[in-house]
Amino acid sequence: MTESTLTDQERASRLSALNALLDLMRPSVQADGGDLILLSANVETGVVEVQLAGACSSCAISSSTLQGGVTRILKDRLTWVTEVVGGVDDSVDFEESVSLGTGGYVPRYREL
């Protein structure tokens, strides 16, 4: 078994900062009927596992939200985060997922 290099206070501080940042991001996802769920966080190795749920299950841009949004923000603001593992909750029925929200905004192309 490997010896921990972080104190209990440092581990608690990292977990608190992670939860606070996820709480800050969550309303944006919830506005479209989805949710952002923390599944696990190893504050020693920096691996964080999240899941998009609700309307995100049927949203075409869920992977972009995870990679371009959640991953980027977590790594930019929490220097100890080394990897973000994530996916969508595929246990929700497609029709139910669609009924939960409008999905991401995709601008329409218009000729000027």
Can you characterise this structure?
The protein is α+β, with helices and mostly antiparallel strands and 112 residues long. The chain has one domain (8-90): GMP Synthetase, Chain A, domain 3, CATH 3.30.300. It is built from 3 helices and 3 strands; from the N terminus they run αββαβα. It has a 3-stranded mixed β-sheet with strand order 1-2-3. Mean pLDDT is 79; it is low at 103-109.
Q: CATH H level: which superfamily? A: Fe-S cluster assembly (FSCA)
- The percent range for strand residues is 15-25%
Rg calc: 16 Å
| CATH domain class | Alpha Beta
SS-derived structural category: alpha+beta
CATH topology heading: GMP Synthetase, Chain A, domain 3
Q: Which spans have pLDDT < 50 for at least 5 consecutive residues?
A: 103-109
The percent of residues in helical segments reads 40-55%
Cross-sheet strand order for the largest sheet: 1-2-3
Q: Please state the average pLDDT score.
A: 79
CATH architecture: 2-Layer Sandwich
Count structural domains.
1
Sheet with the most strands?
A: 3 strands, mixed
Which structural traits does this protein have?
112 residues, alpha+beta, GMP Synthetase, Chain A, domain 3, 3 helices
Outline of this structure?
With about 110 residues, this protein is α+β, with helices and mostly antiparallel strands. Helix content is about 40%, strand content about 20%.
